[in-house]
Amino acid sequence: MTYLIDGLQYSNWSERIFRQLRAGGVDAVHVTLVYHENFRETVAVVERWNRWFERWPELIFQAFTADDLALAKATGRTAIFFGAQNPSCIEDDIGLVQVLHRLGLRFMQLSYNNQSLLASGCYEAEDTGLTRMGREVVTEMNRVGMVVDMSHSGERSTLAAVEHSARPIAVTHANPASWHPARRNKSDAVISALAETGGMLGFSLYPHHLNGGSACELSDYCTMIARTAERFGTEFLGIGTDLCQDQPDSVVEWMRTGRWTKSVDFGEGSKDAPGFPAMPNWFRDARDFGNLRGGLRSVGFSDAEVAAMLGGNWARFFAASFGPEMRGEVERAAE
Amino acid sequence: MTYLIDGLQYSNWSERIFRQLRAGGVDAVHVTLVYHENFRETVAVVERWNRWFERWPELIFQAFTADDLALAKATGRTAIFFGAQNPSCIEDDIGLVQVLHRLGLRFMQLSYNNQSLLASGCYEAEDTGLTRMGREVVTEMNRVGMVVDMSHSGERSTLAAVEHSARPIAVTHANPASWHPARRNKSDAVISALAETGGMLGFSLYPHHLNGGSACELSDYCTMIARTAERFGTEFLGIGTDLCQDQPDSVVEWMRTGRWTKSVDFGEGSKDAPGFPAMPNWFRDARDFGNLRGGLRSVGFSDAEVAAMLGGNWARFFAASFGPEMRGEVERAAE
User: Which residues in chain B are closer than 8 Å to A332, comparing Cβ atoms?
Assistant: First the structure.
């Protein structure tokens, strides 16, 4: 079975976007629920999704296990996997890992740009590595089947997470810093560690992560993927578009500043360009995965390699990461 | 398969009590998580249970569907089904019904002694019946598969819930008021409505619900059950012991007064006896179900009738009430 899977999106969801997912043939998306939201606020976002699942059952459904990929294919719908870009959702309470896993959270970043209770973000001057609570939470995430995502974490924290985690981890949306030296892009050391441990790197299409930004050429992007594959292999590579369709600029402000500052922080933007950047003209929404497929073929990837990078690798990673989960559920499954 | 099921307990849980459940051969218990606790406080109680499930997996596990009864039997453990005695856990947010159902909540009382946002309690002078939100929440509970429990609700509200609910409802722990005229016991009209709609009545062993209180005789209790069965049939009858083992009296104070008053409310108790009453000497804990079995046989019930009332009827009701639940889950199940 060939799957098309997007390793990360945070769009301003609507029927229009859900229909674009279907038109693009996207079988599954890891969607961001929250950034700085606390537990109760996170649950409110789950509730909003529940309304959408009830309203558009012919387009989307909430996915809990890798088996839901086959269900998506069989029923012509897009499977939605929940994730959080920061651990604010678990507050200071490790018990919320299992609670949120039960509600469907399958990915959680240990930090988002800043220091968190668990790890350091990629914008901090000092990187603590995993904190005391960070190590405990990674172990708990391993136990219940929640993926450690280090997309916005610092280098030392990321390598420490790879080292400490008993299960492979992911960087769901970032590119090699050797191609475009943004703070959010990843060093060869991180990419190599992911490749060697069965982890995943989802190539981002967010313009700030691209060489040339919004003007980045498809051929340049695909050549970057080819070079990464040559150096580290293709098995751990996927796509995490980081699509933020239809979001107002107030949302990127929330993403960057949450409630941690009263000042303005432009993050990857700038005073002159504080808002969301325009997507490259060859990838505006989910209907453009065909362009990506064509671009990857043009740089020499085989059909099998393209299929793996556009979904097969994520599917394998999902199967290894989301289940079997807790003891009780394993025993139930064994019945 | 013959099951032994307790329709309600709220004990101060410990390994000792879990071992008593095993010694008593109890296959499943509906346990009360909360009374006046809000959503976040309810989740903290779920977390506490998760710890217990992880610590004593050979004794207990969290149950989500009626199929878990067979799992309990097959693995020699007690299946734990969650419930709430008041709708404080959903606050003013109907979306929390589905969220809590996903976390395993299978029963919710619409009110506890007092007026709630949904219905009136049995201690109110005025009984509103179901409120506007109450009707909406019952419909949502029906949709997701959460049992409407009216044990502590007023007469009019209870009859309105039977009428409005598309699925059978329960009074998990109460006795006929004709036997012992306590406010918490139920009228013939309510008992008849439960019987006629496929609902359930769980006979309580809480002393305030018993003729003679703690001194109530086993034969008197079983004769009361026999008279109820003669008048209304046996198919809708079960046991809901209302066991509150090892609870300090501060807990009964919380149950009665929560945060709704600064005064003392003695509820079913009195100034002279404000605490938990002593259980009858023939039913001190889960190991005494054998006494109940013997008592029911002594008043003329057949083995099949006793088995039905000690678990078979609850098992059938669970199967009809907890699933199939939401559209998405039905479709997944159909795969």
Answer: 61, 68, 71
> Binning pLDDT at 50, 70 and 90, where does residue B323 land?
confident
Contact A208, A215 (CB under 8 A): no
Q: Give me the pLDDT at residue B330, please.
A: 40
The pTM of this model reads 0.94
Name chain A contacts of B61, Cβ cutoff 8 Å: 328, 331-332
For residue B186, give the amino acid letter.
K
Could you give the CA distance from residue A226 to residue A224 in angstroms, rounded to a whole number?
5
Stretch A4-31: mean pLDDT, rounded?
A: 98
Cα separation values, B177 from B207, B236, B279, B304, Å:
14, 17, 19, 27
Query: Is residue B325 a contact partner of residue B334, using CB atoms and an 8 Å limit?
Result: no
- The shortest C-alpha distance from A96 to chain B (Å) reads 7
pLDDT of residue A1: 84
Q: Best interface-test mutation with B: which of A61, A65, A94, A144 has the largest number of B CBs within 10 A? A: A61
Model confidence over B203-259: pLDDT tens digits? 999 999 999 999 999 999 999 999 999 999 999 999 999 999 999 999 999 999 999
Closest of B257, B274, B295, B7 to residue B123, by C-alpha: B257
For residue A99, give the nearest of A162, A153, A46, A149 by alpha carbon: A46
Spatial CA neighbour of B172 closest among B108, B103, B267: B108
8 Å CB contact of A57 and B327: yes
Task: Provide CATH code, domain A5-334.
Answer: 3.20.20.140
Q: What's the pLDDT tens digit per position in A194-250?
A: 999 999 999 999 999 999 999 999 999 999 999 999 999 999 999 999 999 999 999
**CA of A303, closest CA in chain B: separation in Å?**
29
Residue of chain A minimizing CA distance to B47: A95
Q: How many CA atoms lie within 13 A of B120 on its CB side?
A: 15
For the CA atoms of A260, A261, A267, A269, the dihedral, rounded to the nearest 10 degrees, stands at: 140
Q: Between β-strands B60-62 and B78-84, what pairing exists: parallel, antiparallel or unpaired?
A: parallel
Q: Which sign, positive or negative, has the C-alpha torsion B309, B310, B316, B319?
A: positive
Nearest residue in chain B measured CA to CA from A62? B328
Please state, in angstroms and rounded to a whole number, the distance separating the CA atoms of residues B108 and B37.
13
Report the candidate in A196, A186, A201, A133 with the shortest Cα–Cα distance to residue A156.
A186
Which tokens go with A298?
A: 């043009």
CATH code of the domain occupying B32-42+84-334: 3.20.20.140
Q: Check B47 against A96: CB less than 8 A apart.
A: yes
d(CA B44, CA B50): 10
Contact state of B332 with A50 under an 8 Å Cβ cutoff: no
- As a whole-number percent, the residues of chain B with pLDDT over 70 amount to 96
What are phi and psi for residue A30, nearest 5 degrees?
-85, 115
CB pairs under 8 A between A and B: 77
Q: Where are the domains of chain B?
A: 32-42+84-334
Name the B residues in 49-88 with CB < 8 Å from any A CB.
Answer: 50-51, 53-54, 57, 61-62, 68, 70-71, 74-75
